[in-house]
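Extended Data, panel c. Modelled sequence:
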Amino acid sequence: MGEESFTIARAPTFVHGAATDDDTSRVQWCQSRARAMRWSEEAELLQEEMCRVSRFFDWHAGWWLEQQGSVLGDAAQCQGPAGIRTESARLIYSILA
């Protein structure tokens, strides 16, 4: 995933007094800065969530493969469920790739 960097302009200087265009510029600058900070945080959270989903899928595929050894019964009865487990694990690994 490509990374973008945002450059925020320096806050304008202001003279105390009545409401002017400078006040509007200051408000707009503050809003833009807050928006950039929120997007930066959102990008960090999304990256962490993507890592967690990947780890969960890896665990879940392994869990499906572990279930093959836990089935009791004769080979004919286990053949169908074993295929389902193997296919489920294969599908999850294909999502990870």
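Residues 21-96 form one domain. This feature is highlighted in the accompanying rendering.
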